[in-house]
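Risk register update: the risk of archive-format incompatibility is retired. Evidence:
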Amino acid sequence: MRDATALHLYHRPRRAILNVVPYQPNQRVRLNLAGLTVNGVTFHAAVTDALGTIIKESSENPPAYLIELVFSFKGIKEIEVSGDRIRPA
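Archived output:
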């Protein structure tokens, strides 16, 4: 008989890895830009739900994406954002 604790610990990391799916080009996403500074523009704490579209993945490790914003913020229309600040729209 298998030890249930050992089996549970084995499956937990595997499940976490399988749930990581990269975003695809043209996918609509929501962004948390709070605290970021890009080209001299600082996004304040209220900018936690900006809408954008994935252009491409710019880095695999750590994951980062080039995103076209739906609304320009002080002239910024495209921004590179780490994967932990992105969620599906």
